[in-house]
Each structure stands twice: as structure tokens, then as C-alpha cells.
Amino acid sequence: MRQAHKKQSNPIASVMEPNPAAPIVESKHVRTWSDLDALTIPDTPMLWDGLLPNKEIALLAGIGGYGKSTLIRQLAIAIACGDRQFLTRSIHAPNRRVIYVSCEDGQNKTTKILKSYGRQSTPGLAFIFASQLSLVEVLGEVSSEMHRSPVDLIVIDSLGNLFNGEQNSNSDAQAFYSEFAWLADQALVLFLHHVRKGDHRSTPDQVNIQGAGAFVQRARAVLMLTGDKHGTERYLHMEKENDVSDTFKYDALVLGFDRDGKRYSSDGDTKPVWEIGRPAEPIEGLELLFQEGEKELPAGVLVSRIMGKYNLKERAAKDRLAKSGLIKIRFGFYGRPGAETPQSAESATVQGVQSVQPKGRNEARKGTKSDTK
User: Fold this and answer.
1) 302: number of CA atoms within 13 Å, CB side?
2) Pairing relationship of beta strands 263-265 and 270-272 according to DSSP bridges
3) Alpha-carbon distance 206 to 216, whole Å?
4) Would you tell me which of 15, 25, 146, 150 could form a disulfide with 95, CB atoms 3.0–4.6 Å apart?
5) What pTM value is reported for the model?
């Protein structure tokens, strides 16, 4: 005997079918424009003003060797030491506690680096040396430290060392981040990550960050550190901010990098993000920077005039001057285009004299030897 086919219930249909007898229940997921207009939304609490929120997940991306670890290690030290500011931006870290998971630098190297700063040590900065640890072991160590006392910042240096999934898989990236969700409810979890090779010379863009898009999409804030790897200037900006702060979204914080001391400094200057990675536009009418009778000018005067004429900040004006094509006639001085200065005339005279000097003693000897053969 054929069994009657049992009709399967459709959960979606059961929800969509209206029931006139059912009482109207206000949904906690639905809000009208008027409801929203009545709300007072506070600013996002920040750990580091304009750059990092005090909780959830954040990402700092940059090419290897640019100094990401150096930057965040300095921030960790500032937090643990109770500093009120770091690189001109205020710090709000009530616990003065940082957990730094180091997957690359070992204990000996880290010790040397910390000693080089010359600051008083504090137990508020705890390092977990994780080059030989699995993700599960790292989470266990972090959990143990969290139970000792509350933490303001957890640094994972770097993401690639702990991530074992497929780099371009969004589902793997989301699953990896989910392992840190409970930590992100209590402190900021900051991952250090890389950008794709070959993209570091272009204008910064989140599409250049390595791996799946979910690494960027899931993060509450994404910072990028860029600049000339061999120079002394770096740029830090907010590439993505999910209702965090747009202070440095369009203008990057300019950082000075001491290559010998391996540390950062800043006077608070900024640079438009779109100018990073692009050559400075040539200055037309260079002779107009010189007033009548001026054949040479100090660099400082030219920088001031470029700032006024082209409405640029000091750093941008210095960059324009360096790439302007003006001839530096001596240290700190530039000559007017087309004008002959005493230095240029003297240089031309010296070159002319050298060109008509007789052959040197060695060349004369060579000539003598060839004649005697």
C-alpha cells in the first residue's frame, strides 16, 4: 500500500502568511526614520585618537620591511607606560595593558629592541613568542593573560603566520576572524598584514592588501603604512573606517622614521592620500619665484614662496622644490633659471681650464713607451 506523501512544511511561507488573529508584536529589528532621529549616538570610543577604536578587530597593512612592527611596538610601549599621547594623537587606555603576539621576532631580538628605547620596563606589556605555536595554542596563551587582568590591545604580528586557510577564501578568512571574536568584545585585536608585492609604489588602496576581501571587510578599521622604504618618511592613514573616524581617511599622518634608532616621530603634519606614490607635479614659471635682482635664494625662502603661491603645506612644498629642476648652486641655495651666478661662472671657468690642461704624467709616460717600441 502506497504511503501518503507527507507534505513538508515551508518555514518561509509560514512566516509570510498573515494571521489576523495573532497579536501585533513590535519587532526589535525594525526602526522608523522618526525612531532613529530620536536617538543620540555617541562617538566611537577610541584607543588611539583618529586611528584605532578601543575594541573589535583592526588591520594594519604595509609592505614587509616598512616598519609596521616597529610602529605598533612603540604604540604598545606608550600604552603600557601610561603615555597620554603617541605621535601627537591621544591615547585612551585605562588598563595600560598590551598583549603582543610575536610570530617573527624572537625573545633575544625583542629584548635588544626594548632596551634600545631606554624606558623603564613595566609588566603591562606581555609578549607571547609564537613562532612555534599553533593558533589554538596562541589563543590559549592570550586567554590566560586576559584572565590575569583586563587588556587594552592585543597585537597579532602577523596575520599570515597564524592563518592556515586558503589566502583568497572569504569563508576561511571569516572563520579565522571568528576565533578572535570573543577577544574583540573585550579589547582591540590588531592584526599586522602585508600588501601585494609590486603594489607598494602606487597610491594606497585596500585592493592591494594580500588575501581574501573578507580580511578587510570584517575589520572595523583598516590602516595602511606606506612611503619610501629607503627614505625617512612614512604615511599612516585610515583606508577603511566602519563608523570609526575619518580624520585620516583622506589625509595621511606624516611620520618621520629614524632608520638608525628604528623609531617613529611626528609633528602632526598630514599629506593628501592621493599624492602618496605619485611624482610631484612640475612647477611652471620657476623664474616667478625669484624677485627682480635675485639670482639665488636659500631653500627656506623658496619653500615659503611655493607654499604661498601654490597653497601647499611645508612638506609638500619641500617635495616640490626637490623635484622642481632648479639647480642647487651650493649647499642650501638655488640659482635663478637662466641667471649666471658667481658660483656657476667659477664652475664653468674651472671646467674650461681642466679641458685645456696638458696630459698628466701617467699619460705622458704611456706616450713615451709607445714611441720607443
Assistant:
1) 27
2) unpaired
3) 7
4) 150
5) 0.73
